[in-house]
Design a protein that fits this description.
Layout: H1 7-12, H2 45-71, H3 76-97, H4 101-127, H5 148-162
Helix pairs in contact: 2-3, 2-5, 3-4, 4-5
């Protein structure tokens, strides 16, 4: 003889699982391989870095363009270096914003060129002021731009190191 369920038991009883509700009778399929990590250089603080590079690309281009068009004969080396800096900032801006392993390498190269440029031009503008009678973006280590040209590539390299792509699998 079976016991009848009480009134309280009826509310908690469930019908046997059938159809869609039934537990699978086979083992579950293996989980898919982890998706490749998303490129995150252009998210979060990376967006701020890209924005600062964009501002420097625009300002260095405008400055170099004005200097070359109006007074190139006064300091040709300095103004050509300003134009070179503008190109470096433009390449860094674009490459930081683009996803992918190749763009990562371009970013690293651009930021390293920027760092070397700031250090070399900064030192030359201190020790060889005859060739630098007028300031460039990188003169005196970026003094005319609150030393941001000196700090920016350092921050850029740190950001790129932290957001480097995972090594390729064989």
């Amino acid at each position: 003889m079976t016991a009848k369920p009480s009134h309280e038991d009826i509310g908690t009883m469930r019908a046997p699982a059938t159809g869609r509700d039934a537990a699978p009778t086979t083992s579950p399929a293996p989980a898919p391989a982890a998706a490749p990590t998303k490129d995150t250089r252009n998210t979060g603080p990376g967006r701020l870095l890209i924005a600062v590079y964009a501002v420097f690309a625009i300002s260095a281009t405008a400055r170099a363009g004005f200097q070359i068009l109006t007074k190139f004969s006064e300091a040709p080396l300095a103004y050509l270096l300003s134009a070179f800096a503008a190109v470096v900032y433009l390449v860094a801006t674009v490459s930081l914003a683009k996803p992918g392993r190749t763009w990562f390498k371009v970013s690293v190269a651009a930021v390293l060129v920027e760092l070397v440029g700031v250090l070399v031009v900064g030192a030359l503008s201190v020790f060889d002021s005859v060739n630098f009678p007028h300031e460039t973006v990188w003169s005196l280590f970026g003094r005319g731009y609150a030393f941001i040209p000196l700090l920016l590539p350092i921050l850029g390299l740190i950001w790129l190191y932290r957001r480097r792509p995972a090594p390729k699998r064989a």
